[in-house]
Design goal:
alpha+beta; Jelly Rolls; four-stranded antiparallel sheet; 4 helices; 8 strands; 31% helix
């Protein structure tokens, strides 16, 4: 996959989960230098509840499910679609992860680790500010709407 696929995914997703930084093509290329690209297999945990990871993931393709061990077992809190993000709270809060994020099938993600964001902030502060604004907007919309808990997939 390429950066173009990630850009297309973010531009095509609308709604409360859309990660929508106001980037030009050149700004996307600059931002991408601070990301690492990963293929994730279906069933793999991208984020494990309780871990102290400080990474945000941008979803290029596939679907991620979010669930927490302290909610009804197997109950899905949310689905993350291409063009959205997962783990954004890790950029803002130093603490344990509050939920698990699992790939429902093969996924392509781009990871932004906090040290790389801090480096971006030193070198290109306007880009870093836009990343935080866009991630914060998704986080605020998700908090306002509350968890969208769904029945486990096996019981539908």
């Amino acid at each position: 996959m390429t950066l173009d696929a990630l850009i297309d995914a973010t531009r095509s997703l609308s709604g409360p989960d859309a990660f929508a930084p106001r980037f030009s093509a050149d700004q996307w290329r600059n931002f991408a230098q601070y990301l690492t690209q990963h293929d994730v297999r279906g069933g793999d945990l991208l984020i494990k509840q309780g871990d102290a990871d400080r990474t945000m993931y941008l979803l290029e393709s596939g679907t991620l499910q979010v669930y927490a061990n302290d909610v009804a077992p197997g109950a899905r809190i949310a689905l993350v679609r291409p063009g959205s993000i997962a783990g954004e709270i890790g950029l803002f809060v130093d603490g344990p992860r509050s939920a698990n994020v699992e790939a429902m099938g093969p996924c392509e993600v781009w990871a932004l680790r906090l040290p790389r964001l801090e480096e971006l902030a030193q070198r290109l502060p306007a880009l870093a500010l836009e990343v935080l604004r866009a991630a914060g907007a998704v986080m605020a919309r998700r908090m306002r709407s509350g968890p969208a808990v769904h029945a486990p997939a096996a019981t539908r």
